[in-house]
Amino acid sequence: xxxxxxxxxxxxxxxxxxxxxxxxxxxxxxxxxxxxxxxxxxxxxxxxxxxxxxxxxxxxxxxxxxxxxxxxxxxxxxxxxxxxxxxxxxxxxxxxxxxxxxxxxxxxxxxxxxxxxxxxxxxxxxxxxxxxxxxxxxxxxxxxxxxxxxxxxxxxxxxxxxxxxxxxxxxxxxxxxxxxxxxxxxxxxxxxxxxxxxxxxxxxxxxxxxxxxxxxxxxxxxxxxxxxxxxxxxxxxxxxxxxxxxxxxxxxxxxxxxxxxxxxxxxxxxxxxxxxxxxxxxxxxxxxxxxxxxxxxxxxxxxxxxxxxxxxxxxxxxxxxxxxxxxxxxxxxxxxxxxxxxxxxxxxxxxxxxxxxxxxxxxxxxxxxxxxxxxxxxxxxxxxxxxxxxxxxxxxxxxxxxxxxxxxxxxxxxxxxxxxxxxxxxxxxxxxxxxxxxxxxxxxxxxxxxxxxxxxxxxxxxxxxxxxxxxxxxxxxxxxxxxxxxxxxxxxxxxxxxxxxxxxxxxxxxxxxxxxxxxxxxxxxxxxxxxxxxxxxxxxxxxxxxxxxxxxxxxxxxxxxxxxxxxxxxxxxxxxxxxxxxxxxxxxxxxxxxxxxxxxx
Length: 601
Fold this sequence. Notes:
- The chain is of the alpha/beta class.
- The protein has two domains: 3-316, ABC transporter type 1, transmembrane domain (ABC transporter transmembrane region fold); 336-414 and 494-600, 3-Layer(aba) Sandwich (Rossmann fold), CATH 3.40.50.300.
- The chain has 23 helices and ten strands.
- A six-stranded mixed sheet has the order 6-7-8-3-9-10. Strands 2-1-4-5 form a four-stranded antiparallel sheet, with no helix packed on it.
- Helix 7 (114-121) packs across helix 10.
- Residues 337-573 form the ABC transporter domain.
- It is found in: Cell membrane.
- It is a multi-pass membrane protein.
- Residues 21-304 form the ABC transmembrane type-1 domain.
């Protein structure tokens, strides 16, 4: 049950002053708060003996007032120290989780769903925080506070009556342990169900357009209702066990009261106990109710905290797939990129996704990458981003050095990457463009948008640059999102600009404008363009055609056209019939079908 405290030992040691003061004040208050019942019992005895005077009454009242003031000051201080320590733990874990998420590569996010990560970052962290705050309080109150009361009852009143009142304690211990074991498993399952619910909501909201387009609203409602029913059922199972703690303890406390009153009255009649002692004993029994309830709360909180901390630590323990080497190099400029018989395989793949790639890209060159869907185009260019460990064969060199020898952040600062499906943040157009360059002026933003062919769209936006694009850019068209993402990369003027089919949703006229602008402003810097449109890479210094992870063709536009291979055929088809037919060819559809459609025109 207390494994969670051992797992948090480093935090408690780091915050030892804060927790030492809180626990010290709690222990001191244990001694202070046992005095009022003693004063009450003393007053009852004085009354029964007709010895209560004004001075003795004033003395007793003065002591009571003093204990109240001391309890208030000490109580405020320990609560502030204890709960601020718990919040510090929550803040620390939240910061560590965010830093961990930012270091993780795609493989991590393939294993953990977004909804599950949100559950671990919210509910689970709250449970751990409760353990470091309220859990420590219940630990002190259920152990030292209850022990202090019991010792006081035995010494100041009657040890016989105290022992008799302890008879229900073993039953409490057995039941609480059993309830705690059941609670641990049920709480883990409830948290998993909460993560599933989060994931379902996120997927539905992100894909609301698709849901509506296919008239799946009712099906989504039904599936969400089933998910909610699962969450309800598993949380109800937790609540069923949770609800047993307090009634069980209250019932056993009632038995303790019954023993105390019955046997205590007998001792009074036997002359072994005074009426004042019996009165103070019963007050102590009343004070003992909370420590007994705290036992149940302690087990509940510790089991929840242990389960939640395990879930959080499971995420934090996931090692980054890509890490910087010791004494890693800092790249200030990228002169050339070399693939030397480079082969790469995704962790979940059963075959090589890139095979024997030999390729050189020098500074100032433009490289075009084309090929069928699934041929490895995106895989090739994403090797430069080091989202996965380097390939198992061959080498990828930057400036003549293996890419893994360079600091990852330094490389990323020299590269601008625009994917086919860009991610826009729920901010304004201006803030999305200057995301990587927060100090960029409006003039720089407008210049980048002009290069990306977006300035004609600005007057149509309700608030111009201040227009909020919505979550993931939901208020914009696909082409608008791609051009804003392109402007975000262009404003950095990176050493290497990677366009991974970044203009697939842009019309041909706008694409031509963008490519001309890029050629004009990127003289002397490297540009890599991945595209399914053959004319988009026509101006490139070199074009490579990938097929099943291999370089099938390579050369300039003129060389590839003379070769009359896949590139030349695709180029001619796109020029003659438009890109729709060429897409069919790229997917392996029979050439005859395309020719038949062309003849029908």
